[in-house]
Structure formats: structure tokens, C-alpha cells
Design goal:
Layout: H1 3-17, E1 24-33, E2 43-49, E3 52-58, E4 64-66, H2 69-74, H3 77-104, E5 113-122, E6 128-136, E7 139-145, E8 150-153, H4 156-167, H5 169-193, H6 195-198, E9 205-212, E10 219-228, E11 234-239, E12 242-243, E13 249-250, E14 254-255, E15 261-269, E16 277-282, E17 290-293, H7 297-329, H8 332-337
Antiparallel strand pairs: 1-2, 1-5, 2-3, 3-4, 5-6, 6-7, 7-8, 9-10, 10-15, 11-12, 11-16, 13-15, 14-15, 16-17
């Protein structure tokens, strides 16, 4: 599958998943396009367990394939053939839906996308969650209100779909049953199949740095958190030990390329007023939160300046003492040293 579409799915997963407390999640991302291009297939699907890719399907390959080693080992050929047939049906449906939606929004040619995000999760408090969310051209289209068994339209164009699906009670009830029963059941299986990978814990490493902001007098503090697994993490800046969630700008949690994840959090400060800032990281691998304080460069430079000044003073005093001794002795030591050697620039 195209790298761009994988990244889109990752960003979508991060947006939906939110915090770091969920002990298990299964999510699928469907994407159909009206005009395929280089590396962008007409239709593709990726599946994630706890944020880890475990399967994908593309119209270019025409088959469902394992995206993780454990999925290839634990799921047999019948499973992948069954998924392939199912996803080919979704591909045909998405192709038809794109034609319908272009007509509904009075669009002719051009690049258009139809997407679905669906999945379920087991939460830390023991409760379960699930969702079906459709989007057209990157905007919300229609989503399932699971508890009320109704669909929510995002705009006038989606009202037609809402009325049609609300009228088909069986269709909506099957979607709810999938989220509450089938999806949760398979999530449990996947978590068991991939437990050696999915349940491993690698603690985060933290680096704090600073640089001048574009606004005069301000400084941007950056907290880079990397090398951690699983992907669930919470990062916030503290001011005098107090969390500053509104002032903290959080980046997306993205793969590092080595099986771990990384993210970054920044905050803009006025160092002339306050310098007591600490980056606080919470992660399932940590028994307690990890705190790394910011150390202003000015203090370090001041210390280095004092040290260098002392060294220069000591060197100057030592040089003066040597000079005075040589002058007193008439440079006898220096003259004597030239008598036994012919090495040097005059040799």
C-alpha cells in the first residue's frame, strides 16, 4: 500500500485513539479514490491492533496480506482467503459509492476520496467502545450513533444516506452487533496471537532542548520523546511542577522505523520571567511519570565563562612567575638547553 495512505491511516488512528490508557484496540481504515495514481491504488484497507499494522489489502494486489510477522504465523490460509473475498466486496461497493457521491455533490471529473474508519476498543475501566465514521473528500460525511442505533449526517448531501440507512433497521443493527460482539471477539484473538509483540514494553527516552522563537524575547522549549513501545503515551510541560496542557503543543505519535514510536511536545515561554519548566512523560512501561527539567543555556554559559576566566587567570599568573624567574636567572636554563640538541627550526 502507498506510504501516503499508510501515514493518513496512522494520523487518523492517533486522532481517534487520543490518550494512552486503552488496553486494546482494533481499527480499520478504508480508502477509495476516483483517480488512482502512482502509489495510490483505487481502493485500500489497513488494519491495526493497538496501533500496530497487522493486515492490508490493495486493489493493486487484490489480496489481503499480513502486515506483522505474528499475523502471518497465527492466521491460516483460510483466514486470508476469507478476508480477501470480503474486502473485494468492499472494493466494489466503494467504487459505486464514489460515483454516487460525485453525482450527489454535482461533481464531474477530478480527484475525490471516500473513506471509512471503524473499529472497537477495550477501555481501562472495563467498558467497550466502537465506531463507524465515513468521510468524503476529507470531510465528515455520516457516522453511527451506536447506542441510539441511528446515523448522524454531517451535511445536506449525507442526509440521503442517513434516511436510507435509518430506514433499514437490520443494516444498522448488524453494524452495532459487529462493533459490540464480532469486533471485540477478534480483538481478543489478535491480542493473544500477537502478545509477544503487542505486550512488550520499551521505556521512552527524553531529550529537552530550546531555541529562540520568532517572537522577540520568547523561547520555544521542545521535548522529544522516542524509542518507546507501545504507542500510547502522554506528554505535557510542567511549570513549577504544575501541568500546562493548554500551553503544550503536542505532535502526532509516529513510527520511528525500528518498531518503536516517537513524538514531540513544545511550549513557548518567556525565560526572563520563569525558567522552572519540566517535560513530564507518562507511558505504560513506566512505574511513575518521567520528568526531565529544562536547564537554561544562559546558566551553563555563565558557569563555563567563570571556569574559563579562572583558568585564564591561573595561566596568566603562572606565566608571570616563569617570566620573572627567567629574568632573574639571565635565561641560563634556556641557553643551557640549546647546547645538547640540534633539533628544532635552526637544525
Amino acid at each position: 500500500m502507498a506510504t501516503a495512505l499508510r501515514l493518513l491511516a496512522l494520523l487518523g488512528a492517533a486522532a481517534i485513539q487520543g490518550g494512552y490508557s486503552s488496553p486494546g484496540s482494533l481499527r480499520y481504515f478504508y480508502t477509495g479514490v476516483s483517480q488512482p495514481g502512482a502509489g495510490v491504488p483505487v481502493f485500500s484497507i489497513v488494519g491495526y491492533v493497538d496501533g500496530e499494522l497487522f493486515m492490508d489489502y490493495s486493489s493493486e494486489t487484490g489480496r489481503a496480506q499480513p502486515g506483522a510477522a505474528w499475523a502471518g504465523r497465527q492466521l491460516d490460509a483460510q483466514y486470508w482467503e476469507r478476508e480477501t473475498q470480503n474486502l473485494r466486496g468492499w472494493e466494489a461497493r466503494f467504487r459505486a459509492d464514489l460515483v454516487t457521491l460525485r453525482g450527489r455533490y454535482n461533481q464531474s471529473a477530478g480527484f475525490h476520496t471516500f473513506q471509512l474508519m471503524c473499529g472497537c476498543e477495550l477501555r481501562g475501566d472495563g467498558s467497550k467502545g466502537g465506531f463507524f465514521q465515513y468521510a468524503y473528500d476529507g470531510r465528515d460525511f455520516v457516522s453511527l450513533d451506536k447506542d441510539r442505533e441511528t446515523w448522524v449526517a454531517a451535511d445536506d448531501g449525507a442526509q440521503v444516506t442517513k434516511r436510507k440507512w435509518d430506514a433499514d433497521r437490520g443494516f444498522t443493527q448488524r453494524r452495532r452487533a459487529y462493533l459490540e460482539e464480532t469486533c471485540i471477539e477478534w480483538l481478543g484473538k489478535y491480542l493473544e496471537y500477537g502478545k509477544e509483540t503487542l505486550q512488550r514494553r520499551e521505556p521512552p527516552r527524553v531529550q529537552v532542548s530550546d531555541q529562540p522563537s520568532q517572537d522577540g524575547g520568547l523561547t520555544t522549549l521542545s521535548c522529544r520523546v522516542h524509542g518507546f513501545y507501545p504507542r500510547n503515551v502522554a506528554v505535557v510541560w510542567l511549570k513549577k511542577g504544575v501541568a500546562m496542557p493548554q500551553e503544550t503543543n503536542r505532535g502526532a505519535v509516529v513510527p520511528s522505523g525500528d518498531g518503536t514510536y516517537q513524538t514531540r511536545a513544545t511550549i513557548e515561554i518567556d525565560p526572563s520571567r520563569e525558567t522552572d519548566y519540566t517535560c513530564c512523560v507518562e507511558h505504560p512501561s513506566l512505574a511513575e511519570d518521567l520528568r526531565v527539567p529544562w536547564k537554561p543555556k544562559s546558566n551553563v554559559m555563565l558557569i563555563m565563562g567563570v571556569i574559563i576566566g579562572v583558568l585564564v587567570l591561573v595561566a596568566a599568573v603562572a606565566g608571570a612567575v616563569v617570566f620573572l624567574r627567567k629574568k632573574k636567572d639571565g635565561y641560563k636554563a634556556a641557553a643551557g638547553s640549546n647546547q645538547g640538541s640540534h633539533t628544532g627550526i635552526n637544525a
